[in-house]
Specification:
This protein has 371 residues and is of the alpha/beta class. It is 36% helix and 14% strand.
Amino acid sequence: MSRKTGLMWNERFMWHEQGRYAGILPADYPLQPGRHHENPETKRRLKNLLDASGLSEHLTPIKAREISREELLRVHTPAYLDKLEAGNLEAAAIAGFDAPYTRGSVDIAKLAAGGCLAAVDAICSGQVDNAYALTRPIGHHAEPDEGKGFCLFSNASLAARHAQARHGIRRVALIDLDVHHGNGAERVFWRDPSVLTISLHQDQWFPPDSGFLEDVGEGAGKGYNLNVPLPAGCGFGAYQAAFERVVLPALERFEPELVIVPCGYDAGAQDPLGRMILHSEAFRWFIARLRGIAERFAGGRLLVTHEGGYNEFTIPFMGLAVFEELSGIDSGVVDPHRDIFVAMKGHELLPHQEAVIDAAAALARDIRKPE
Ligand code: ZN
């Protein structure tokens, strides 16, 4: 059965630049200038594959729009917004740790964040069943008072707050699949039980000293932040176990009215900034499970926001699998990497991986639907 899936995209997202970089470092001598790891290619190639395969024709376009200051203040501090605006006029600026930007980037970031809100509007009004926000800059590392890890605004957190403020949605679940910790949403909702934040990530990878199992939230929000810090080298088996023992039981207890998936692809095999070996079929499986939760509890309301992922050749196919699963439409394209990555050694669940997952599963058992 096909579903109505929205695509929020704007070519201007591709025009955000970090400046003179090579990988993650400023390109100063002796480092030859090149490209920043977070450059347009992964996202642009995904958009191009949607077009080339014909899948775009079946998607409902969602127009990006600029987010207002009032909407940004639901998540970010006035001082941080003022700092960004000042930097937006400079040739080069830094929003926080590993978050460089250049003149005009903040305008683009506002369009991307506002586009995520427009996607929430389309979902909650019933214009679409679910949606994918193909944003740049990405958002999941941005915190209330500083940018971080290539991110300026916490797009997924802003989307969650918008759904609560404008659409009467009470409970939102955020399931962060990026290989790096979803620290932004963790901080935003640290004391808030109305938004369940779950992050599956590589243990102590980025940000440093972040994403520990014992970081469960505080006050009323205690128990509503779940970290699954997976050891480097996990394959599909470990991620499936994490879903079946932690993510899905937690969501079934929480009963979200909206599901948001900050979806990074850097847990994919051969990603330069991750050390996992997932493939496109894994992402298809994740979205199928999360769609099942959304259909059971949230009237199908499901938003995917594009996050990290830095292998420009493999990511378009992982993204395509997500779009196929959201829409229920088979593009007919077979991922050329699929058989190679599926055949890789290391997809079975190993004991040291299972130990972390079972510890997280014990925490997930305490989750209750908040009042
Ligand atoms: Zn990442």
